[in-house]
Structures are given as structure tokens and as C-alpha cells.
Design goal:
By secondary structure, the chain is an alpha+beta fold. It has eight helices and 16 strands. The chain is globular and about 65 Å long.
């Protein structure tokens, strides 16, 4: 079914000339701090360089191996604002990596990805030599009831060229959608599963638009790798809407791109971003990653307004009608 037909059937007869029927701008964006506000509270000796307009920042002058409580609080404020942070040339040992990551909360033991060793089960190893690792836009582990809060990545080994990682700001994505599209999505949920790991039975249902637990800001919360269905829509409607949202959210104006060096640490807020590894390299690329368990995604809007779609009849074309 064409996308505009779906929207036409969903929205009311009233005009959408008003850009903000849900009042999302005054409820979220206006309360956000800016990078300049955050920098003003930072101690001397730190250099913060934005990675792109949409998100991301490189931080120099902060040692993560022995960070104190005051500096960690500054880091958390900066992460809430920029969503992805990069710390060059940290070269943490596995114990230091785990110790620093644990400050964010309880660490995940991933059920499917290989671990560093028996002494460090929280550290997963992502290794490849010709791409094929995370080269699909996604948000980590959305197929569990409480997906990760954030990940702390340590770049161990790099090929001579390539292997950059990109992130996208899903808050900006949601805010850039048209008012009728935001109105439609506000009452929906989506099913996520672990079929890519061979475990489709591992699944969870989350709001299509979630509220950030720290800032309250709304963000789109579907991704191409793990999201499978919007249960309030027919299968055709769900597929059309999801494909549109995937393509819309992956546009470059919502993203930043980081060129790694060995020893870099990258931290990203998994609650409002997606990421993608550029598959353009030959040569071994090895990452150690610790992921922090998160909270249950809370909807930004009421998701009880629409029931689960009920199949009315079958057609010879095997399409729901």
C-alpha cells in the first residue's frame, strides 16, 4: 500500500498546517542544554571538538583509566548532550576498560557474541578482516525487554584504511518527521527480535517513539536489523512504514562518522542512536566492547490508543486485507 494512502487514512480531516499538534517542541527541545552550556561547566584542560552538527564530540585531556567522580559527572552531562563521545589514545587494559565501563551501571553478558576470556566475560570481541561486522544500521540488543543504556568500545586493532563507524541521532530524526507522521507514530509499538543471531524466539515489544529517561526528549526507536513488525498495522502497512522510517533515519544529515585509531575509546547512548560500521576495509579489525544494561523503554506518548491489528480476510495474493 502506498505510504501516502496509509497517512491519508490515518489522519483526520483537519488541516496539518500547524506544524506541532502534539506540542513536542516545547516539551522537550526547549529544555535541552547546548554544547556551549556543558562546556561552561567543564574543568580547565579539556578540549571538546564536535564531530558533526547532529551529534558526537571528541574529548581530549581526560584520562578514563583513573577518572574521579567529579570528572565522570562532567562526562555524563556531555554524553547526554552529544550522545556519542570519542576519547583518543586511551589504551586501556581489559581491567581498566571493565572498571571504567562499570561506572555507568550493571554490565551485560551477551548471550551470543564471543567473549575476551573467562576472567572478562563482560568484554565481547568483535573481529573481522573483510567487513561483515555491524554493517547494517541498528541499535544494540533491542530484542530484550530492557535494551542497553550505552556501550563502551575500545579499538584494539585496525586495518591500514577504512573501518570507520557512523552514528545517527534518532531524536533529530523524529523531530524532522512531518506532523501527521509524528501523530500516527505516537501511538504505535514495534516488535524486535534476534533472528539475525538465529534466535527469533528472543523478542520484545517497544514504543516506536520512546522518551529519553534523562532528557525526556522523544526519539524514533525502530531499526533495520532487529525491528520486524508494528502490530497495530496490517503486514503491508507495517512493512511500508518501517521501510520508510529506516531510509529516513539513515540520511547523512542526522549522522556523524569517526575514523578510529588504535587505543581510542568510543561511548554512545544506545537509547537514542543507531550505528553502522562502514564495510570498506581489508585487514584485521578488532574491537573490545562492554555494554551497560538499560531500563525499560518508556513511550513518549500513549501507546494504548490502538489495538493489535486483526486479520479480516485472506487474499489469493497472500496479502492481508
Amino acid at each position: 500500500m502506498p505510504l501516502m494512502s496509509i497517512l491519508a487514512g490515518w489522519s483526520s480531516a483537519s488541516s496539518w498546517a500547524t506544524a506541532d499538534p502534539l506540542g513536542w517542541r516545547c516539551n522537550s527541545v526547549s529544555t535541552m542544554t547546548t554544547l556551549r552550556d556543558v562546556e561552561a561547566t567543564m574543568p580547565d584542560g579539556l578540549t571538546i571538538t564536535p564531530s558533526a552538527g547532529a551529534l558526537g564530540a571528541e574529548v581530549r585531556g581526560m584520562s578514563l583509566a583513573d577518572i574521579d567522580d567529579e570528572m565522570f559527572a562532567h562526562l555524563q552531562r556531555l554524553l547526554a548532550e552529544r550522545m556519542v563521545l570519542f576519547f583518543p589514545a586511551q589504551h586501556l587494559t581489559p581491567d581498566q576498560h571493565r572498571g571504567f565501563a562499570s561506572r555507568f551501571g550493571e554490565m551485560e553478558i551477551h548471550p551470543f557474541i564471543p567473549k575476551l576470556d573467562a576472567e572478562h566475560p563482560e568484554i565481547v570481541v568483535l573481529k573481522s578482516s573483510q567487513g561483515g561486522i555491524a554493517d547494517v544500521w541498528h541499535t544494540d540488543v533491542t530484542w530484550i525487554a530492557s535494551p542497553p543504556l550505552c556501550s563502551v568500545l575500545h579499538m584494539e586493532l585496525l586495518p591500514e584504511h577504512g573501518g570507520d563507524t557512523m552514528w545517527s541521532n534518532q531524536q533529530l530524526v523524529y523531530e524532522a518527521l512531518s506532523a501527521p507522521m509524528r501523530e500516527m507514530l505516537s501511538g504505535l509499538t514495534a516488535i524486535h527480535n534476534a533472528a539475525v543471531f538465529g534466535h527469533p524466539e528472543n523478542k520484545a515489544e517497544h514504543p516506536v517513539v520512546r522518551a529519553h529517561p534523562v532528557t525526556g526528549r522523544a526519539s524514533l526507536y525502530v531499526n533495520r536489523q532487529f525491528t520486524t513488525r508494528i502490530p497495530q498495522l496490517s503486514s503491508g502497512e507495517s512493512a511500508a512504514i518501517l521501510q520508510y522510517l529506516y531510509a529516513f533515519s539513515e540520511q547523512p544529515q542526522f549522522s556523524c562518522r569517526h575514523r578510529w585509531s588504535e587505543g581510542d575509546i568510543g561511548i554512545w547512548d544506545n537509547r537514542a542512536t543507531q550505528h553502522y560500521v562502514v564495510n570498506d576495509y581489508n585487514g584485521e579489525r578488532v574491537i573490545h566492547r562492554v555494554t551497560i544494561l538499560g531500563d525499560h523503554p518508556e513511550p513518549a506518548f500513549d501507546t494504548t490508543r490502538w489495538p493489535t491489528h486483526q486479520l479480516r480476510r485472506l487474499s489469493a495474493a497472500a496479502v492481508e486485507i
